[in-house]
Amino acid sequence: MKNIPSTRKKILIVGAGELGMNVLASFIKDYPESYALVGFLDDDKAKWNAVFHSYPVLGGLDALDDMITQLDIQMVVIAISDMDIKKRDKIVQTGMAKQILVKSIPGIRELITQNDSFKALEEVTMQKLLGRSQVKLDEALLVSQITGKKVLVTGAGGSIGSELCKQLLKLAPKKLIALGHGENSIYQLLMDLESDRVEPVIADIQDSDELYDVFAKHKPDIVYHAAAHKHVPLMERSLRSAFKNNFLGTKNVADMAEIFQAETCVMVSTDKAVNPVNNMGRTKRLAEMYIQTKAEDASCNFSVVRFGNVLGSRGSVIPLFKKQIKAGGPVTVTHCEMTRYFMTIPEAASLVLQAGSLAKSGDIYVLDMGESVKIIDLAQNLIALSGYSAQDIAIVESGIRPGEKLHEELLDADEIYQEQISAKIHVGKTVQFDAKKLLCLSEKYRELTETELLNEICILTSKQGMKERMTK
């Protein structure tokens, strides 16, 4: 074994195939002073004891634990495309136990589209942090619905919207109308997708006239409504903006879907709409209610999809934790007992598509996301996966922010059907509410002070308020 200066981080590559060779070449060429490859591990016994560019294959994956200890390995790089999730989890668990960094090559496509394979390395965090196998939904139902159709996605530049567009393109729509309010995010989406089937549209869902023109021009068959204001603390300071964008914007989209005879309209919602205690949740609940109102007599198939928190999205806690870890800490959690449900961005987008294919008008769909996760456990796991210990990075409690719940729900007790309609998908019951009051609020909100508007919203979205109004 070569003598390696102590200033260089010792690397072990899992996978001695083409991907592993690309990683090797990148380390040798671009990072000779920072990293030193010790060797490879590969389950292909034919490669055992082989030597590639003077670096040996030291055995199979079962030898990982021993090799880390014996060779003082400081980072493991997974260079196997589409590795079995159980094997990947085992490698990550080993790395966490040894307090070393584990990274993964995303795959061949990413290597081709990026100039430097090492820069394409992604930390193996999202799936591990999720604490369960990723849900993969059946795409068979989607093909007949999407192929050859004109599909509109609102909020197309956001985390969920952009992933929706990527998955939709694989299903060969006739046209994909990517609508967003921010030109930079839509421009970036166009660069990422590189497809002549994508029609970019810069428009504001709050402007009904502008939205009318969009629908009149493109006449979409299917609408996925992902546009929303989602940041809880900011919306606590901006009630009217949350109301206009989340509720009135949804109303405009739903109205246009009906006017222009779209086949399906799926609204993306949130677990914060269940027994809402903040402006974001309340306005999303109003939007759900309007979708359910439209579903009662429209020919368009309206439905709602409810998510928990999305790992890796722009509004998630993960980017903040990563920034804090990079700065050396501390990592801040609002409360040590706070829990949330989590899913990955691809899962969230898949559920939206699945809901559109399964939908019975007016239904609320929820993904079975397993057990809720403590935020402090999430922080501890991310610290470990980043190669640090509890002694290196402190975790401090900062206090619950305005509008936050300690625990969140995906379905209210009154909404739950016990049976699942599909693997990993629940459907909620329609809860009664006063539709006339909902429509009245959409028309008279300009006349109300912010306090009066909040009071009206709270009455409409609270259980007691609904019961009182429905019995009058």
Automatic annotation (TrEMBL):
Transmembrane residue ranges: none
Species annotation: Listeria booriae
UniProt domain PglD N-terminal: residue ranges: 10-88
A Pfam family the protein falls into: Polysacc_synt_2
Chain ranges of the Polysaccharide biosynthesis protein CapD-like domain: 151-427
Protein family (similarity comment): Belongs to the polysaccharide synthase family.
The name this protein goes by in its record: Polysaccharide biosynthesis protein
Family annotation (InterPro entries): NAD(P)-bd_dom_sf, PglD_N, Polysac_CapD-like, Polysaccharide_Synthase-Rel
